[in-house]
Amino acid sequence: MKPVLMPTSVHLAFQFRFLPVPVCLYLSQIVRRNLIL
């Protein structure tokens, strides 16, 4: 990997560690909207 891509990969890994909770909330909202529609 290029040294330039290292910070982005670390940033992505850092995001993916804390992303599941907001993603679950977002998906739950989408499911609720689809059920309402």
Topology:
Layout lengths: L4 H14 L1 H17 L1
What does this structure look like?
By secondary structure, the chain is an all-alpha fold. Helices cover 84% and strands 0% of the residues. The protein is built from 2 helices and no strands. It has helices at residues 5-18, 20-36. The protein is rod-shaped and about 45 Å long. The termini are far apart.
Largest sheet: none
* Protein structure class: mainly alpha
Unreliable segments (pLDDT under 50, ≥5 consecutive)? none
Measured by DSSP, the beta-strand proportion falls in: under 5%
Helix content: over 70%
Tally the beta strands: 0
Number of helices: 2
Kindly state the mean pLDDT as a whole number? 76
Q: Categorize the overall geometry.
A: rod-shaped
Q: What is the H-and-E element order? A: HH
Radius of gyration: 16 Å
Q: Termini, distance in Å?
A: 46 Å
Short structural summary:
With 37 residues, the protein is mostly helical. The chain has two helices and no strands.
Any descriptors?
2 helices, 37 residues, rod-shaped
